[in-house]
Amino acid sequence: MKIFCLLLLLIPSVAFSEVITELPVNKNVIAITFDACETKTPSYFDQPILNFLIKEKIPCTIFISEKFARRNSAEIKRIVSLGFIEIENHSVNHIQHMERLSKNDVLREIDDKVLQEITGKKTKYFRFPAGNYNDKTLKLVEKQFKVVHWTFASGDADKRISPPMLTQWVLSKAKARSILIFHINGRGYSTGKALPEIIKGLSLKGYKFVKLEDAIR
Questions:
Q1: What is the pLDDT of residue 40?
Q2: Rounded to the nearest 5°, which phi and psi values hold at 179?
Q3: pTM
Q4: Please, where are the H alpha helices in 57-134?
């Protein structure tokens, strides 16, 4: 027994990488999150979505790429001042396969200096573009951020999905502790029309909405 215990002490502890896909809280809450990215085409906030969130004061989290942030810096400053919209890191250039990048390139892609300058605070969470990563890249990113993805894909970037289809899908899949993902950069084609019904439906089921920073420590 003494030898066995000694061997256990000699085994180094292992920190397992983790991508958060559900809220780690025992509450009836859901996180509404959005991606706002820009690659080659100039992109801006989807105003119907943003106006609805602000009017209804829906706590939510928006993952923003640096390119998008530079183009929309004034709007970002405005929404951050509201207090119920959280801004987090979605990379610099929205490269969809960061797992193919070198270590130095990955570090450049996760630099949140511009977001810090705009929002006045360091970001806590990172979302890989397109959700693509490997273990090596994940471990590298986790030295600076917690990686947060989503519980299930909403599919709102698909032009073939109508508002009723999007609403029905999300309401049928969402559950307590879900992290929902939509787009707020003009690529959530049915989100603007579907979101009010989604929020209404989830509220009727008794769910409350939280920012990620209020649920993930």
A1: 83
A2: -110, 110
A3: 0.91
A4: 66-71, 73-80, 103-109, 113-119
